Amino acid sequence: MECYKSRTLTFTNANIIEGYTVAGPKENDGRYKGFFDIALEDDMFGQKTFERAERKMFEHAIDGAIAKANLTTMEIDAVVGGDLLNQIVSMSFAARKQHAGFLGLYNACATFVESLIVGSCLISNGFENVVCAAGSHFSTAERQYRYPLELGVLRSPVTQWTATGVGASVLSSASETPVPRVTRATIGRVVDYGIMDANNMGAAMAPSACDTLVRFFKDTNTVPEDYDAIFTGDLGKLGSDILLDLTRQEGYDISKQQHDCGASLYWDEQQTYQGGSGAACSALVFNSVLLSRLRSGAYKKILIAGTGALMSPTTSFQGDSIPAITHLAEVCI
Amino acid sequence: MDKSITENNVISKDNYKSYVFEKMPKSSHWKNMFWAFLIGGVICVIGQAFIELYKLWFSIEDAAVLASGTMVLIAAILTGLGVYDNIGRFAGAGSTIPITGFSNAVVSPALEFRAEGYIYGVGAKMFLVAGPVIVNGVTISVIIALLTLAFGG
Predict the structure, then answer these.
(1) Which residues of A touch B23 (CB under 8 A)?
(2) What's the domain count of chain A?
């Protein structure tokens, strides 16, 4: 057995004081209807292009989160986060409107949990308020990664549907009332099991999810039964099944605790095949449903594992396999 | 089937691809072929109907060209209305192979990249999907023509 160094960080005061979500129309027709702060009726959001719509969603999510937390933009020390577009333009352009420092992050669909980890580190180093945001838009991702929207193609049954939405959390070093806190986090490593099919991202990401989860359990001497729920980002149905097989092989049975943000986002009738994908999945589900369940006490301790496939269309066309990463955060109330 | 792999062998980096292949849901070839033949057939029947209609006024050659043009126009309009991709989602090759599929392949990127302007958007990206079909089609037709010439077909 190889020997690894611990990759788990501990935080004492990373309070998640507020979360805010902007969801697309299809997402608000899904299982979590009504949980989102803003649900778009039209995914153009009154803009001329889909890219501008995504940017506006980021602006609304960041401003909304700050306002909901009873803060002003001047009180924010840093905004961290990213999206799926080349050069993470949606997040960066939205950050133009902020006074706070900005760190642009990219770890594909693991970006939201990555931003929580980076945000928690900043809080630990003395920052007072940090906004963590991530999101994606079906139409901008589709044209960057796959085919034109109106092209009539048969979709493979292993494909997922890029979710439209942005989620933002406000982390604060102090909170008057008990709020959910990021207590520990494991930084993922890049794992590549040689999957070539860019449609089958669940299979490409499952080994990395297993790697990070097992690393966390070993680093912290915990077991899956210690948690009320373990939410993976966007493994989809197939990826989740694979993850269960892989973790069982490592001696951890997470079948009772594991849920997938992407797979649970839509109803089966919405024909997304394996469920949702994209940075929006974990950002939307965490900042709406999970935060409210933590606040209500339905969950006391959960794990959120953002899963990301790190390929680009260029690497796929050049015949390279898909590296994947999973970052994990432990959130307790 | 997944049990046999997980209980008897260990999933490793080496056998991961074959494990995934066994586990993943497969496309239903019979269902896909059924819809492809049905929708593809219907498209061809409509095309033939236009040929028959145009034959009332024109020669058979002109009628065929006019019918192709009509089908291209209809497919372009359906693409613009956002209908053609819904047909293609279950018809697959049935709506890709006929000339209407070619129209869809040109119009859909043209629509999509309109946001980047007429030169760098529509102009540059219009043949994003259809370009390889044209290039390879022309190349292969030249090769076949040369073969025909060489072997005196």
Answers:
(1) 238, 241-242
(2) 2
Domain boundary among the residues A152, A172, A192 is at: A172
Contact state of A149 with B112 under an 8 Å Cβ cutoff: yes
What is the rounded distance in angstroms from the CA atom of residue A166 to the CA atom of residue A288?
Answer: 11
pLDDT band of B9, cuts 50, 70, 90: low
Residues A185 and A76 placed together within one structural domain of the fold: no
φ, ψ for residue A307 (rounded to 5)? -115, 135
Q: CATH number of the domain that A311 lies in?
A: 3.40.47.40
Is residue A240 within 8 A of residue A232, CB to CB? The reply is: yes
Strand A301-309 with A229-232, pairing:
parallel
pLDDT tens per residue across span A24-50: 999 999 999 999 999 999 999 999 999
Chain A contacts of B101, Cβ < 8 Å? 152
**Phi and psi, residue B78, nearest 5°:** -65, -35
Backbone angles phi, psi at A184, to 5 degrees: -140, 160
A1 in contact with chain B, both atoms CB, cutoff 8 A: no
User: How far, in Å, CA of B9 to CA of A12, rounded?
Assistant: 42
Host domain of residue A165 = 10-172
In angstroms, how far is CA A82 from the centroid of its own chain? 10
Q: Are residues A159 and A198 in the same domain?
A: no
Give the minimum alpha-carbon distance from B7 to chain A in angstroms, rounded to a whole number.
9
Model pLDDT for residues A262-285, shown as the tens digit of each residue: 999 999 888 888 999 999 999 999
- Say yes or no for a CB contact (<8 Å) between B96 and A155: no
Q: Is A49 in the same domain as A168?
A: yes
First-to-last alpha carbon distance for chain A, in angstroms, is 35
Using the 8-state DSSP alphabet, how is residue A266 labeled? S
